[in-house]
Specification:
heterodimer; A: mainly alpha; B: alpha/beta; seven-stranded mixed beta sheet
């Protein structure tokens, strides 16, 4: 079943879609800029894919409520020129203690991007409930859990990183 | 086994000990003649081995007598390591430490230990590093071998500690071995299993391994999965257990949490899907599930095939799940075994030498940290508990970026055993990293040190250690250490004295000077915790069999099987860990655990399969896995010095399938090169029963005995030249079982490859 289109809900789904695409880009960027932090590199790509998966799953809902969305970015598993450059830079500067401060800054930035996605999922979820949109609600439940884990992860990572950066 | 030319009449005395060359911990006596070690014999009274010994146990002791033992401290001067006095060497190490503590603070110091020392060494190290210096950077090489066992037990049961006992192998009717080549990792346990397989009422056997291991050849069902796909397979097996109603619904309802989430996850893994991911037949998965689902007494085990793959903790938890779904735990013949690699890895974990708060305490639980602070008489704030302990790979990362400036490596050889060796060597070579090594031999790592302490080893000091089914053995000093070598505990105490580490009343932090005094202090610290040692004494461990912890007032003779009342260590106040998200490794906080409220029930964790970190591609089309051979240990520091072991497996080899060999025109013994994006290894090819598309290289072979020092000169032979820097997000165990490689034939070799012929590397006829 799909209810009548709700244009304002649709707008927020679009915003969420954009936020998830941005977040995926942010994960890749941080992963590559800090490629010498190997977990960030590997997990950054895994979580970028997770965000893109969420954005893809949202697309039909956006269509139902508001019309078409622009195509998602397509630098998926392929490595862009810029990404390679960022990684090469990471290898060079990765041995400087100053990278720690850069890392903390990037993790904070990333945290804001995850928070933004989490808040938009909350808003879209509330809209979906009021609109009795069961299909969207199923997606919201699954994706909010994933985003919650992303938030827990960034918290863990910052807890581990901050003391070494601040006191070395 | 006695040295050639020695007879039993020549033996002056037999000294009680146990073997330190695998996690089995076989009890043995050391023969001493004229103050020298001259042989060993198995102890028939012991519950673990009943007198049996494996090849490394029988022959490995000869390394103690090697003329290459380090006998004096070494100090680097003008680029070279030169002999020095203890006074000089300790002074240099202490003053460098003191300088960094004053200038930067504790976070500039790191310690990287092992799974090979004794409990007393570990506990002393843990108290010094965490209670005295106050650094969070303390880990063991157990990170490479058993971190996942530890974390999988914590995730599911709330704490470390093997649920089962070895007698469960005698009593089971079904055996499920996942990534566990027991015939080469724990030979005497394999003998025990063979007693069953070749005796009356043999258990049915399911083996998961990409290689044609000896257990795989004995199996009713062998699933030679593509490495790195354990999770998909285990999800599928659980899919079958649930779909066919082969689960103990009452047990699941009463004694577990998380079933609904698990059901929803595994429903997406019907055998056809898993067959595609894992590269095995769907019907074989069904048959394996039928065997597991119809057994009355199921023992499951896992080891490095699970622990050193990506999604390690997630997969190991599924092995726990299989037994929980079947209600197969806490009863005779029924248990999941999360096994260990090294002989004393269990003590590394209990003592906190892997960074965890000692006594299986929870770093996020302030009450637990306060308990430790009380035992050590230090301010709770002194003990780092702001984040999980820094894992080994991150310690090396901090060394790389230059924020750790002092690294003390005890009894391990990261210059051969860590992944991506060119990176590790370049980290250890850095001018601004001060490296201290305690070892018995001049390993590759020791060659890179600024100071080397000569260590006394097994047989030259007294202490206890604990095997993988919680059996505690005492190992007595049989002979004096060579030259000026000292036990690690004594070296550490000397260091603490020079740093003037004190408790909050101004008394010396370390209050013991003998191993027995240390053990007594340790055991008080374990009171009420899962690893309760309070009922044990050195005297009680002397004479008879080893004893399993917990051993206390309630269980004075020790405890065979844990969780016989189906109550697990998962109450929020007691648990050793609040758990993790299996995909990201995010630590759950107290509120998350309290919300889940397992309250004594086991936790069924679920996860979806994800692709390995390094996908195969045209340039690197083959999948590398590394592993051991039965005749060697770690990086051959000891086993290379035992002639029989060295002769049995003298050189590296590269194992490939017949199909891949034919496609590349490679014959048995031909010289081949394996390359990954990180390096290359050359060696003769062994054409074995390994899965097509998979290449195996043993990890033991480094460079110290090649004449090229600590690094390759020309062609390389250490498997870790090829492996990648990546780790499991939860246990942080590095990934040694999946990397993308290519293979080239270089030319004709000198006959058959020098690989053992009776093991997983047995040749197949073309």
């Amino acid at each position: 079943m799909s209810a009548r289109a709700k244009p304002k809900l649709g707008q927020y789904i679009e915003k969420l879609h954009d936020a998830l695409t941005d977040l995926a880009g942010e994960y890749r960027k941080v992963g590559e800029r800090h490629a010498t932090e190997h977990d960030l590199y590997q997990l950054g790509h895994t979580l970028a894919k997770q965000c893109e998966g969420q954005a893809d799953a949202l697309a039909p809902h956006a269509k139902r409520h508001a019309g078409d969305l622009p195509e998602g970015s397509d630098d998926g598993p392929r490595e862009s020129l810029l990404a390679g450059l960022r990684r090469a830079t990471a290898a060079i500067v990765g041995r400087s203690p100053l990278t720690g401060l850069l890392l903390l800054r990037d993790l904070r930035q990333l945290h804001l991007a995850i928070e933004e996605a989490a808040m938009l999922w909350l808003i879209v979820g509330q809209g979906a409930q009021a609109a009795r949109d069961r299909e969207l609600l199923v997606l919201v439940e699954q994706c909010r859990e994933e985003i919650t884990h992303q938030l827990m992860w960034i918290t863990s990572r910052v807890k581990e990183t901050a003391p070494q950066v601040l006191l070395s | 086994m006695l040295a050639e030319g020695t007879s039993e009449a020549d033996v002056d005395r037999w000294v009680q000990s146990a073997c330190v060359l695998c996690s089995n911990g076989c009890a043995l006596d050391i023969a001493v003649a004229d103050g020298r070690m001259v042989g060993v014999r198995g102890r028939g009274v012991d519950r673990i081995n009943h007198g049996r010994l494996g090849p490394k146990g029988l022959y490995g002791w000869q390394a103690n007598n090697s003329p290459e033992r380090l006998t004096r401290p070494l100090v680097r001067r003008n680029g070279n390591l030169n002999e020095a006095t203890w006074e000089e060497a300790l002074e240099i190490v202490a003053s460098r430490s003191q300088h960094l503590l004053t200038e930067t603070g504790p976070s500039a110091l790191g310690f990287y230990a092992t799974g090979q020392l004794f409990l007393e060494d570990y506990y002393t190290l843990g108290v010094i590093a965490r209670g005295g210096i106050g650094t969070n950077h303390l880990d063991g090489n157990t990170r490479l071998c058993t971190a996942t066992a530890d974390y999988a037990l914590k995730e599911t049961f709330g704490s470390d500690g093997q649920p089962g006992s070895y007698i469960d192998f005698d009593e089971c009717d079904t055996l499920f071995l996942v990534g566990h080549n027991v015939a080469e990792t724990q030979t005497v346990l394999w003998m025990r299993i063979l007693d069953r397989l070749k005796g009356p009422n043999p258990p049915r056997l399911v083996v998961v391994d990409p290689r044609a291991t000896v257990p795989a050849r004995e199996a009713d069902v062998h699933l030679p999965i593509r490495n790195g796909t354990n999770l998909a397979l285990l999800n599928s097996i659980q899919h079958e257990l649930i779909a066919n109603g082969w689960i103990d619904e009452r047990f699941v309802a009463e004694h577990t949490v998380g079933f609904e989430k698990l059901r929803q996850t595994v429903i997406a893994y019907p055998p056809e899907r898993a067959a595609g991911i894992c590269g095995v037949e769907a019907d074989d998965i069904r048959e394996a599930a039928r065997i597991i689902g119809s057994g009355k007494r199921l023992v499951s085990t896992c080891l490095q095939g699970v622990y050193q793959s990506h999604q390690a903790t997630a997969s190991a938890c599924q092995v726990n799940n299989v037994n929980l779904l079947r209600g197969m735990i806490g009863k005779p013949g029924a248990a999941p075994f999360q096994l260990n690699g090294q002989p004393t890895a269990q003590n590394t974990r209990e003592c906190g030498a892997n960074g965890d708060p000692a006594g299986m305490r929870n770093w996020q639980n302030l009450d637990h940290i306060r308990e430790l602070a009380t035992h050590w008489n230090v301010d709770p704030l002194q003990i780092p508990s702001w984040a999980p302990p820094t894992h080994a790979m991150q310690i090396f990362r901090h060394c790389e970026e230059g924020t750790i400036k002092f690294l003390w490596i005890l009894c391990t050889n990261p210059a051969v055993s860590l992944p991506e060796l060119h990176r590790i060597r370049s980290i250890l070579e850095q001018e601004n990293l001060f490296v201290v090594v305690s070892d018995a031999f001049l390993t590759e790592t020791a060659q890179l040190a600024d100071v080397v302490f000569p260590a006394a080893i097994w047989g030259e000091k007294t202490g206890v250690f604990t095997n993988q089914d919680r059996t505690v053995h005492i190992s007595e000093k049989a002979v004096d250490p060579p030259g000026e070598a000292k036990p690690d505990m004594e070296i550490l105490i000397e260091y603490a004295k020079r740093l003037d580490l004190r408790d909050k009343d101004g008394q010396p932090l370390i209050k013991w000077s003998t191993p027995e005094e240390c053990f007594e202090a340790f055991k008080q610290m374990t009171r009420g915790r899962p690893c309760d040692y309070t009922g044990l004494t050195y005297d009680k461990l002397r004479g008879g069999s080893g004893i399993q912890w917990p051993c206390n007032d309630e269980a004075p003779d020790g405890t065979g099987r844990l969780y016989t009342d189906f109550r697990f260590n998962t109450t929020t106040d007691y648990t050793e860990d609040y758990g993790h998200d299996l995909l990201t490794g995010a630590s759950h906080e107290r509120k998350h655990h309290a919300e889940l409220n397992p309250d004594g029930r086991a936790i069924l964790k679920a996860a979806d399969y994800t692709l390995p970190f390094e996908p195969l591609r045209d340039e690197y089309p083959l999948l590398l896995t590394t592993g051991r051979t039965v005749y060697h240990w770690h990086t051959r520091t000891k086993t290379r010095r035992a002639p029989q072991l060295q002769e049995a497996a003298p050189e590296v080899w590269v194992e490939i399938s017949l199909a891949d060999a034919s496609a590349l025109g490679i014959a048995e013994g031909d010289l081949v090169r394996v390359s990954s994006p990180r390096g290359a290894v050359e060696g003769p090819a062994r054409i074995s029963g390994i899965r097509q598309g998979v290449v195996f290289v043993p990890f033991h072979y480094g460079y110290w005995d090649t004449g090229s020092g600590y690094e390759p000169n020309g062609s390389a032979r250490a498997a870790n030249e090829l492996t990648l820097t990546a780790w499991d997000p939860v246990s942080k165990q590095p990934i040694f079982k999946t990397a993308a490689v290519k293979l080239e034939r270089l030319g004709v070799g000198e006959g058959a490859a020098p690989a053992p012929r009776q093991t997983a590397s047995a040749p197949v006829e073309p």
